[in-house]
Amino acid sequence: MAIHRLTDIALKATRVHLGQQVVERSFGSMVFHHRDQSDVIEAGHSILRILGTREEERQKCRIAWSEIVRAITPDHAVLINRQDRKGNMILPGQSMFILETEPAGYIVYAANQAEKAANITLIDARAVGAFGRLTMAGRESEVEAAAHAAIDAVKMLSGRDAP
Prior knowledge:
- This protein folds into 2 domains: 2-53, Alpha-Beta Plaits (2-Layer Sandwich); 62-156, Alpha-Beta Plaits (2-Layer Sandwich), CATH 3.30.70.
- Helix content is 40%, strand content 25%.
- The protein is built from 5 helices and 6 strands.
- A 4-stranded antiparallel sheet has the order 3-4-6-5, with helices on one face.
- Helix 1 (2-13) crosses helix 2 (37-51) and helix 4 (106-117) packs across helix 5 (140-156).
- 25% of the residues are buried.
């Protein structure tokens, strides 16, 4: 389980704090945070050095699915809100944006860019496994702006094509 060794390296090399760690055989992940962004960047560089790779060698993001569902009905909202997730609730009448990416980790970046671009509510973000899924909701115009920001952001990232 290399994720523990890599987490240890990043925590000892910088002042970052571990916000989340998911241990999986093939798709483990970790989330670091710190008030000073340079510490987060250095934590990433420390991990890349140990792995003997560079950021440019990462797999390019592929958008597996994207859609906007407009004016969610009350029944639909209830079912979405009952799902096993850790996020806010979607309200009837709101529009919903769903984005799926491969690899999963890109969903975190997409969510961050969407939240910066529009006044939307994060319903769910799953960055575990092969595919990541993001669900956001809000007024239709805000959801459209968030969707464009998220999609544009991951499309602009460099990387190599998947094998």
